[in-house]
Amino acid sequence: MNDQEVYDLIIIGGGPAGLTAGLYATRAKLKTLLLEKLPLPGGQTINAWMIENYPGFPGGISGQELMQKMESQAREFGLVIAAGDVKGVTGNGGMKRVVHEEGDYWCRSIIVSTGATPNRLGVKGEERLIGKGISFCGTCDGFFFKDKDVILVGGGDTAMEEALFLTRFVRHLSVVHRRDTLRAAKVLQERAFQNPKIEFLWDTVVEEIGGEKTVEKALLKNLKTGEIVEKNIDGILIFVGTKPSSDFAQGAVDLDPRGYILTDENLETSVPGIFAAGDVRKKLLRQISTAVGDGATAAYAAEKYLEKLKP
User: Fold this and answer.
1) What residue ranges define each of the domains in the chain, with the CATH number in brackets?
2) Would you call 141 a catalytic residue per the annotation?
3) Which strands make up the sheet holding 198-201, listed edge to edge?
4) pTM exceeds 0.85 for this model
């Protein structure tokens, strides 16, 4: 690596937002580098067994295949992708520094597109069955649970919104919550309580998730009685919060209390020339399609920012 090499743009994160930003930036002839923490780009989308709500793919497409197509298309226009973890970003002026585990990179603009990670339950069987009946997005995967019995874990606004959405598809939905009251807004609670497809299992946690190739059952423990029961299910959806991958950006740009990066309508952060795209920024909807839109907008905004730097 040449520490003195200066890029027009460095993109941090290789999910849908980052790859789209890379495609737009390289087509605009910006000298661009994409840094991805994992060995292969794609982000959380790689874990999706089937995606049916991304335009242009009737019948659906696997997350892995979609990301491979996005990566291939971006590379066709000359996007350079390097692996490794980013430790920090600095720079309030024209030149910016990206602190990487293998050394520093220098650039004139940055797009942060590191995404967000759903919190896990941390129970036996969970990691093995993610994408095989375990989902973190009812909006994305609801159709796959059509006429099936599923469990939803959580009690906040997102959990109840997703529970109500899932009742369009499922046969029966059991909401597992570790407390005896919900944290969700009252209006959402009322709608959920009145829905005949939803039952609530209070003071209960998931102890284990089982199944050979897909989710088949879950062990549930009542925290008050200690009783453990086995429940046959076809899937489990987990909504116990998400964590934005923004630790490296703390102190560099403004974040909201949950750690999401704050941006303006052009996706510029509190620091001129540093932009954010996709699930890592504060936004209403986190989907592949909105991440792609963010990536295109951020790349275009970065291009316009760079034009202003020219003498």
Assistant:
1) 6-117+242-309 (3.50.50.60), 120-238 (3.50.50.60)
2) yes
3) 134-135, 235-238, 149-153, 172-176, 198-201
4) no
